[in-house]
Design a protein that fits this description.
By secondary structure, the chain is mainly alpha-helical. 74% of the residues lie in helices and 0% in strands. It is built from 10 helices and no strands. Helix 2 packs antiparallel against helix 4, helix 6 runs antiparallel to helix 7 and helix 6 packs antiparallel against helix 10. The chain is globular, with a radius of gyration of 18 Å.
């Protein structure tokens, strides 16, 4: 079986699971809801207005990570991977199809989420007058979609390495929450190059550290590529 039929099979598998559809809905709902709350808060004069409008991405990314994790973790339960590899013996092709089937729906939902979040941020109290324009808003909306896709793929690659959804979520979720809420606004340090901190630079109107919007997303993409490469190596080396 080639890549296209394998992708079609993986897409059918993912799209028919209600839990996966619910997780994608959670990406949108969590991001928009928490972004609305943050955009409506006009108390802090030093708050970046664009990041306030997209603050909910810090919560929506957890759902994106869960989507990527569960999509791959299901293969390591009940011998499902043996069935998948019986249909697609070339493990690299199968893993590429799995990753693509994870990336495309998250990117689509992420772009819709970004555009809706931008709209909500502009119409919320303080949003339109907060100082970010159309170009910045569109850049952040696109960056939102790309960032959520990269985080879902990062989780997918890590799950293939660990072969456990629980282990992946137990590692990534605390990490993301610690980086986002404990490290906070620290910049100019190695923390700027962590995957979530780097990618979220695209959601800021002002430049705080050494990375710009697109270079930050590139750093996140490098983390994701490393996780996927490690996952592909693990799938090829380990028995199903």
């Amino acid at each position: 079986m080639g890549f296209t039929p394998a992708l079609h099979a993986e897409w059918i598998r993912i799209s028919t699971l209600r839990s996966q559809a619910a997780t994608l809905c959670a990406v949108l709902l969590a991001t928009v809801a928490f972004s609305l709350l943050a955009a409506a808060d006009t108390d802090g004069a030093d708050t970046d207005p664009l990041f306030s409008a997209f603050f909910g991405v810090s919560f929506g990314q957890i759902a994106a990570v869960a989507f990527g994790t569960t999509a791959v973790a299901a293969e390591f339960q009940g011998g499902a991977l043996r069935v998948s590899l019986a249909a697609v013996p070339r493990r690299g092709t199968w893993f590429a199809a799995k990753a693509t089937a994870v990336a495309l729906p998250v990117l689509a939902v992420g772009l819709v989420t970004g555009l809706l979040t931008w709209t909500v941020g502009r119409t919320a109290p303080g949003g339109r007058d907060g100082g970010f324009g159309t170009a910045e808003g569109l850049r952040a909306a696109v960056g939102c979609g790309l960032y959520l896709m990269l985080m879902a793929l990062l989780a997918a690659g890590l799950t293939a390495v660990l072969r456990s959804g629980a282990a992946t979520l137990g590692l990534l979720v605390p990490f993301l929450l610690i980086v986002s809420f404990v490290v906070g606004d620290m910049s100019g340090s190695v923390a700027d190059f962590l995957p979530d901190r780097a990618g979220q630079v695209a959601l800021h109107a002002r430049r705080y550290g050494s990375l710009g919007p697109w270079t930050g997303l590139t750093v996140t993409a490098l983390w994701t590529a490393a996780a996927l490469a490690a996952g592909a190596w693990r799938v090829r080396r380990r028995d199903a």
